[in-house]
Each structure stands twice: as C-alpha cells, then as structure tokens.
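Fill in residues.
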C-alpha cells in the first residue's frame, strides 16, 4: 500500500468509479441502476455489466449468450448517460473445467483496464453491487473498495451458492466500507467489518407520485378491466408465489388480478384464468400509469431465505404511489407495518386485501406517500458519497497489482 494520501475531491484528474452491477439493459430496474445514475453527475463512472452468478449449465442458450456477450466485450465503452460509460465483461460459466477460472480473471481484468483507459480512469474507486466480481480487488490497483450489498445473492435459485457466499464474505471483510440495504443482513456484516452502515433502498418519489395525479393517463389495456383491480409490477420469478396468486384468483373470481412484468417462470396456470391479466414487461417510466389502475398493490413472495433477507424495492415504489399495499412479512416490510396490510397464506392475504379495499381513503394515501418522501435515490446517493469523500481524505491507495489472482482469500 502506498503512503500517498489522496484528496477527497471526486473530480480530481484520473479519479472515477468502476461500478460492478447488474446488466445495464436488463428489463428490471434495480438499485444497481438507480444508484449508478445518481452517482454519475458527481464522479466519472464506468458501469461494468457483471453477469454469471448462476451455477454452470452446458446448453445451446448459454453458448449463444456467451458469444453475444464476448462480442459486446470487445467494443469500447459507450457513454449512455452524461458521465456514465457502459461496458460488458462476460465470464465463462464452466468454472470446474481446468483453466476456465484463470481465463475468466485474466480476460475480465484486461477488459476492465482497457475500458478504464478509454474513459480516463487511472485512480479507480471499485464499487461492487454484486459479489462475484470480487477478484477485481486483487486485479486492479484502487483508491477505495466499496461493497453496496443489496441482497442475499447466495440464496437466489440456481446460483453457485458456495462460490457466491465466499465472494460476499471476502468483499465484506476487505471493503473499505460496506453499505447494506436488507436489514436482516446488517448485524452479520457489522460483525465482520466495523465500517458497515445501513443504506436502505431509495425510490423515484416524484415519478411514482404520478399515480395520484389526475392528469396521468391509465394504460388503455386497463380501461375495460373489472374492479377491484389487484395489481403487481416487477419480475415474475422463482421468488414469486404463483400458487398463492392462482388460489386467490380462483377464490375471488369477481376481482381482477393484473400482473405487470417479465415472467421468468411458468405462468400458464395464471394465464388460463379469466380474471388474471399478464401484460408482460413495461417501460419503467410507465409504471406509475399501471399503478394508478391498481386498487391494491401486492407483494406475493415465497417465504424463503432469499425473501426473508430481502429489502423489496417495490415496497417503497408502491408506497410512493399512495396505493394500499398487501405484502408477505419481511423485516423491511414490518418497518412499514402501520402503513400496509400483511398476509402469510391465502386466507390471510385475501382478508388483508379486503381490509385494504375497505379502509383506503385520501388521508392514508397521503400518509403512505409522506413516509417515503425523504427516501429518494438522490438522498441515498448523497449519503454514500459523503462517506466516500471522508474515506478518500484518510485512506491509502490499494496499489499493489502484483497480488492479482494470488491472494489466499480470493474465491
């Protein structure tokens, strides 16, 4: 490590953030995208797509996806927003094959260094939203390492759990600061790294408030749907309790169920029901229009480890619309228990929806919106940047690239 003490100015020559996040062009907008967009006006930012958490599977789909990503990786970074450049660093998934892991690390480090040179970053702050690019800690000299932990990634279905847990533990231990969004993960990470703070998700306050604006148009697809309209927006994935939704729809055929989002699992049982509408993925900016059509917004997740440790982004988005909310219980949901209804099974969920429909009124809508008004993404970014500036004023540069790929604690 160098004895050089860098300035806390984020816009010094060569300084910038190398940000390892979810795929930039993914259908689902996550905290990874929201925070990056808010950091870019303050500091040069290179956004690195970091796919490849799931366990190896040999298939034609994987081969096609890998070759597509390899083609993207050979392109130079593109400025997709002012101050924000985007690049892709694919990883071969078959890590058990001899030499694949070494190839992944060598190619990944080369690609990121090349991208950094192109955008003018020579003094990087490494910012990890995902754990599996953790090897970059030893591949790249850097001024700071930030781990912005937004989920219990190792509990996601289909991932290489042991590897992701090892990467997560390494980042937690070695990061100069850890921000934690899910409250259920905070204590464990503070026990590993004292420089750990709670940083819950933000929300596009003004955008989602459009759901209460009389001038906001409803999507044409909703105009003829019967009422009440029970709505959901977001990915329909392995953590979505499809059976719960199906049973509720069968027991309340007079209600209509509107699901807005990309389906990553089999939803054919729902599609066959006459009182369920699946409209597929919709542009993020259009979500307030869909939410305006909801009479009640729901979070019908499976009660597993992933969900218990999650901080559902849509919770704040729903509250920002002012709409009544019914959700499964999680530690983060229970923080807002006075503003929503909670259900754990079909009878409880249906009873909670009935109460939400019965009790909704303008005062409650205003109270829900007020509860998240100070939780904007801009506020979240300002808070994290204040910590980064303080760290830069006191921290030495992590400057020995010879440790690349040889550190004993690298997964």
């Amino acid at each position: 490590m160098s004895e050089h003490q860098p300035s806390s100015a984020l816009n010094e020559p060569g300084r910038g953030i190398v940000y390892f996040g979810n795929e930039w062009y993914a259908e689902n907008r996550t905290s990874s995208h929201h925070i990056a967009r808010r950091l870019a006006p303050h500091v040069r930012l290179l956004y690195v797509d970091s796919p490849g958490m799931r366990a190896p599977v040999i298939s034609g789909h994987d081969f096609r996806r890998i070759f597509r990503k390899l083609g993207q990786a050979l392109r130079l970074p593109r400025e997709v927003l002012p101050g924000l450049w985007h690049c892709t660093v694919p990883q071969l998934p078959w890590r058990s094959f001899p030499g694949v892991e070494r190839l992944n690390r060598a190619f990944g480090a080369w690609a990121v260094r090349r991208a950094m040179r192109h955008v003018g970053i020579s003094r990087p702050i490494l910012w990890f939203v995902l754990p599996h690019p953790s090897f970059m800690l030893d591949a790249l000299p850097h001024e700071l390492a930030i781990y912005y932990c937004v989920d219990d990634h190792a509990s996601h279905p289909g991932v290489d759990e042991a590897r992701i847990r090892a990467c997560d533990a390494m980042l937690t231990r070695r990061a100069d600061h850890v921000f934690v969004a899910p409250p259920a993960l905070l204590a464990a990470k503070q026990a590993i790294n004292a420089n750990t703070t709670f940083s819950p998700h933000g929300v596009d306050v003004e955008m989602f408030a459009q759901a209460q604006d009389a001038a906001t148009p409803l999507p044409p697809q909703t105009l003829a749907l019967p009422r009440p309209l029970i709505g959901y927006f977001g990915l329909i994935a392995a953590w979505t309790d499809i059976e719960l939704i199906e049973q509720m729809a069968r027991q309340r055929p007079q209600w209509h169920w509107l699901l807005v989002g990309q389906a990553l699992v089999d939803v054919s049982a729902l599609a066959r029901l006459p009182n369920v509408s699946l409209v597929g993925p919709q542009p993020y900016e259009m979500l307030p229009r869909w939410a305006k059509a909801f009479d009640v917004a729901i979070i019908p997740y499976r009660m597993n480890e992933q969900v218990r440790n999650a901080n559902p982004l849509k919770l704040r988005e729903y509250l920002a619309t002012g709409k009544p909310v019914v959700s499964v219980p999680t530690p983060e949901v229970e923080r807002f228990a006075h503003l929503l209804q909670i259900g754990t099974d079909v009878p409880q969920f249906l009873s909670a929806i009935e109460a939400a429909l019965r009790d909704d009124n303008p005062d409650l809508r205003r109270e829900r919106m007020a509860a998240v008004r100070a939780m904007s993404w801009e506020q979240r970014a300002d808070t994290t940047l204040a910590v980064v500036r303080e760290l830069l004023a006191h921290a030495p540069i992590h400057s020995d690239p010879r440790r690349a790929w040889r550190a004993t604690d690298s997964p």
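Residues 1-7, 399-411 have pLDDT under 50 and may be disordered.
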